[in-house]
Specification:
Immunoglobulin-like, five-stranded mixed sheet, binds copper (II) ion
């Protein structure tokens, strides 16, 4: 082979690699103190006319949350879908990308951000009281650098996107109960919609739900909020798909030994890594991503199937809206 031809061939072969170089994706996230309401409607939406038992005696508690902002001024919060509830912003990336997460601690106690699954060095682990990012003081800021390498992306049996948890890891247990929880979704390399939109292109819609019992009153039953995204008794609203859509559900859980949850959809089934089911088992720090073809219009239950948890209100509904009918033009004269 002529050297010039060989060089041209090598250049050609290398071009897609340059074109597919990963993106740096920046996020601005503040930790803030809020008042959280486990049932904003004030009602038991699962059983109209019934109250919420001991769990409804008190609904509002002081909590901490991760809030996503548009830029470094931390002045314009990024709106979240209503169903997302207490979860912090969803951080998105494709394999090959790097996440730069500018964390600002606006609370009264040291906090951090620890990501599951992504590639970090000790400074960016956000845990274990070691490294620059382990404990960010009140008023201080830190930029976490997390690489989305191949090992952070979907495996051979996974769907085109998978979910990872992130949470504060200074006061390991209490930081999570305080509400400092969010999710990261990683799309398989080459499956992103575009350079600017790392969501998977084979999915029309995605939902993320956290199953966790928030322990508000150290064991008193009414203070054990059996919540989905921080809501009880049907107060997680806005889960709506349209018939014909491919829906990716990301399911996560946290908590303690009482947090064994079985997420169950009525109306549809899902594919879980090649296995067909309508129930997904979750334990503390489980992270599962499944795929549903929504084609059964209706409003359906979505709930934890553990008996005690149903009683305590770990239930809501979701909707498949009928597909809009294409407009049919009136019949004209037959073509010649
Ligand atoms: Cu449960």
């Amino acid at each position: 082979m002529k050297p010039l031809f060989l060089a041209a061939l090598l250049l050609l072969a290398a071009t897609p690699l340059f074109a597919m170089a990963g993106q740096n994706r920046e996020y601005w996230v503040a930790a803030e103190q809020v008042t959280w309401d486990y049932a904003p409607s004030g009602k038991n939406l699962m059983h109209p006319g019934q109250d919420m038992g001991p769990w409804g005696k008190r609904l509002r508690y002081p909590k901490y949350r991760y809030i996503g902002y548009t830029d470094a001024s931390y002045s314009t919060p990024i709106p979240q879908p209503e169903w997302r509830g207490i979860l912090g912003p969803e951080l998105l990336g494709e394999v090959g990308d790097t996440l730069k997460v500018h964390f600002k601690n606006r609370t009264d106690r040291p906090l951090s951000m620890h990501p599951h699954g992504l590639r970090y060095d000790e400074d960016n682990d956000g845990a274990d009281h070691r490294g620059a990012g382990a404990s960010i003081a009140p008023g201080a800021s830190f930029t976490y650098t997390w690489k989305i390498d191949e090992k952070a992306g979907p495996g051979p049996a996974d769907p085109s996107s998978i979910v990872w948890l992130y949470h504060s890891h200074v006061d390991h247990v209490e930081d999570i109960y305080r509400g400092l929880i969010g999710t990261i979704v990683v799309t398989r390399k080459g499956m992103a919609i575009s350079r600017d939109d790392p969501r998977p292109r084979d999915v029309d819609r995605s939902f993320t739900t956290l199953f966790m019992i928030f322990n508000e009153e150290h064991g008193a039953e009414g203070g054990l909020k059996h919540a989905m995204n921080g809501y009880i008794f049907g107060n997680m609203t806005g889960l709506e798909a349209v018939a014909g859509e491919t829906v990716r559900w990301h399911l996560v859980a946290l908590g303690s030994e009482e947090d064994l949850h079985t997420a169950h959809w009525h109306g549809e089934t899902v594919l879980d890594r090649g296995h067909r089911t309508d129930v997904i088992e979750l334990l503390p720090a489980s992270m599962v991503s499944v795929t549903m073809i929504a084609d059964n219009p209706g409003t359906w239950l979505y709930h934890c199937h553990v008996g005690d948890h149903m009683t305590a209100g770990m239930m809501t509904r979701w909707t498949v809206k009928p597909r809009p009918q294409p407009t049919v033009s009136p019949p004209g004269p037959p073509p010649n």
